[in-house]
Amino acid sequence: MSDNPIISIVQDLRAEGDELHAVLQDLEPEHWASPTTFKSWTVYDVLAHLHISDHMAVTSINDGEAFKAFMGSVSSTGVGMKDYARQWLAGASPNELLERWRNLFAEMCERLETLDPDARLTWAGPPMRPRMFATARQMETWAHGQEIYDLLGRTREPTDRLRNIAEIGVRTFGWTYANRGMAVPEVAPRITLQGPSGEFWEWNTDTTTDRVIGSAEQFCQVVTQVRNVADTQLQVTGAIASEWMSIAQCFAGPPEDPPAPGSRAPSA
Fold first, then answer.
1. What is the pLDDT of residue 266?
2. Torsion-angle region of 226 (φ positive above 0: left; ψ -120 to 50: alpha; else: beta)
3. Could you tell me whether strands 200-203 and 211-215 are parallel, antiparallel, or unpaired per DSSP bridges?
4. How far apart are CA 45 and CA 81, in angstroms?
5. CA-wise closest residue to 111 among 134, 144, 141
6. What's the CATH superfamily of 6-152?
7. pTM to 2 decimals?
8. CA-based angle 261:265:266, to the nearest 5?
9. Topology of 162-247 in CATH?
10. For residue 172, what are the contacts with CB-CB under 8 A and spacing of at least 6?
């Protein structure tokens, strides 16, 4: 077994992509144009976003300056990423998009496995080492996949791959505040989560006041803004923990607000 710490993360990333692909390849044609509860994006828009994000990831892996240039070209158009992705795809059919996403996703995973674990990769937020970069791609694949599960009325079976997403959720506590121009609290809340296998995961164990306790899946849903914390059974104690859970954002980009309570399907 390799001692490269990124190998296991990339395995989880691949599994996340495989799971989403299995859902997408069986979609009825009409579903591709159906609006989801995420900003009314269609399933096509959701996958187009994942695909262009993976393209950005591969571009960054190959050349950080090329990534910056690509982002500059996006900004210069004055259109949002959803519309830019559609333009970039140049009318690709759903089946063509699915194949292109699948192939580039595989290339991204292969490239990630070859990187020096201590490298720094350029991104829209702070630069990341390959391990966290791969985790971020898993997080986005999982989070946007939820929109499709919700649209289809399916319950997704959670796995312990969620630990990676919970980790990035915990690590971006300070980012959430800094990204909003807010002072970062000196002490982060204690996090106690139960994974799907029944194992408990904890972070910030020295904190004795503010706490978040509950399902790892629901915590991941909140930090990825898939659900409003009010639509979960998470136990949130303390002013800092409550504030964080109301604005938590573990993904890069400008500040985003969570969905309004009840606006997205609750967890099963």
1. 62
2. alpha
3. unpaired
4. 10
5. 134
6. dinb family like domain (1.20.120.450)
7. 0.94
8. 75
9. Nonspecific Lipid-transfer Protein; Chain A (3.30.1050)
10. 223, 248, 249, 250
